[in-house]
Amino acid sequence: MLRLMGLPRVERFPEATVTREDEKLVILFGGLEHEQVMSVPLEYVGAEDEEAAELRLLAQLQRIGYRVERGSP
Predict the structure, then answer these.
(1) Which one-letter DSSP state was computed for residue 45?
(2) pLDDT tens across 10-27, in order?
(3) Whether the model pTM is above 0.90
């Protein structure tokens, strides 16, 4: 399980889109007015299987309460 810290409040940014890029996962948090972007290096989430790491992150964000979506690379 990933230890996620510094995430925006679900109440302000209820949507999370995760996109896999070359060396990182990019999380776009959307809300009523604004957006916030976070970048997570793949080495922190299990780079040996990038797709599995992306899916684990999506699942964990959903458990926290975000509405999740998988973005296009």
Answers:
(1) T
(2) 999 999 999 999 889 999
(3) no
